[in-house]
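hi! just following up on the protien thing from before. the input was this:
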Amino acid sequence: MRTFRLPRIEVAGPANRTIRPGKKRAWRLAVMLTAVVGGGSLLTLSSAGPAAAQPAGPAPGVTVSAAVNGTHAPRLFYASSTGQVWMRDLANPAGNPVNLGGRLLGGPAAVWIPPGQLFSAGTYAVFGRGTNSALWWTYQTASGWSKWASLGGTLTSGPAASARSFDRSSSMVFVYARGADGALWMRTFHNARIWAPWVSDGGRLLPGTGPAAVIGDGEFVAAVGTDRAIWVAMNLPGSPGFAWRSLGGRTTATPGIATPVTDTVVAFARGTDNAAWYNEFWRHATYVKTGWHSLGGRLTSGTSAIPTMVNTPQGPVYLFALGTDNQPLMRTGTWPALQGWTRP
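and the predicted 3d structure came back as:
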């Protein structure tokens, strides 16, 4: 198992100012895994179903997640104080959230799996860290949502997920999390509907934080290092695997990541002033300077970001986080001109 410690680096923000972070019964899982990260099969989760009838809000400080199918407003996913997962359809903001059940430690990771061999019509999938610290998932079906099932492993953070379809006959899902050794670990879901074993991608992530992932011109993962800087792991076409680099900054909250413009990748973080900050680290949109830039706000959680149109990068971008009242906030717009913070 290969791991390495990320060196301590700080990078100055605008006007030579260093970016520093802010402060930060339905069912039970049956098996406690003790390996650093172990394999897991799709075990059906015994569940009495969602226990709460009334909609619940996000747990304090939980990082929300969002996903979009490319033709629809995003769906927002979060874990309540009981660990249950809830879904809000932002196309119907007045509607009640849907209870997806489960019992997670930390927030969920949602992803839209495009049409392909895995799911012919495409589908939403949600991943989370169960109370036994294993990875669990559920996905939307024609009649609702599947039962939660275990993918094994011993996670020490919430997961991140990304997916892509190379064509109608080939698609993959990538799930990442911090393992018991502090490194980044990954599992992939292949065309044969088989989950590959866990693989270490190295690094040393700050305890209490998880990764963020996106597919662009390769695989990109953002994480907080033990030096509290933002680090990105990039697995580019033709490369032997992930390579890490520091973006500097300073945070103790789970970051976000997105590809708002063709081949451009942006990391988001909550700074020590509790505002959101962004850094275009892979190629650059027109008129965006290098380094960290503030998006303002008074946030109490990590950040989550998605481009609205999966196959049309010039479509709107969404950034989410919790505000001081523990309710979701968002900024949206065509990159890099985002509107102010509003309620989704």
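The two ends are 42 Å apart (CA to CA).
Residues 58 and 327 are 7 Å apart (CA to CA).
cheers
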